[in-house]
Amino acid sequence: MTPENSELLRLASDPNLYISRLSFREEFGIVRQVHEETYLNSPFMDDMRMIGVEPGEERYSLSQLIEATGEPKPSLWLFHIGHTGSTALSRALSASSSLLPVREPQILNL
Description:
Elements: E1 17-23, E2 28-33, H1 36-41, E3 58-61, H2 62-69, H3 86-96
Antiparallel strand pairs: 1-2, 2-3
């Protein structure tokens, strides 16, 4: 990794760096700077509905993103397919625990 890509070194450990888009066909990913409030206040984590996102984004090759994230670390995931109450559920989880819900991230729509 080059010095100008130093944010990639923090990608796997810093939730303020958010991979907002991936293209496997064109082999790139878009990384945006977000804040905890973005996760908490945005109804969905897609480009149209994220609240409080820093201007600008960085484009990286998939190989750079894979190298930067390294081995996966243990994490907890809760997926559900309900169309009613999902935002309320994720807000309740974030208010009552140290969890950081990510509501409908755009990269799941590949």
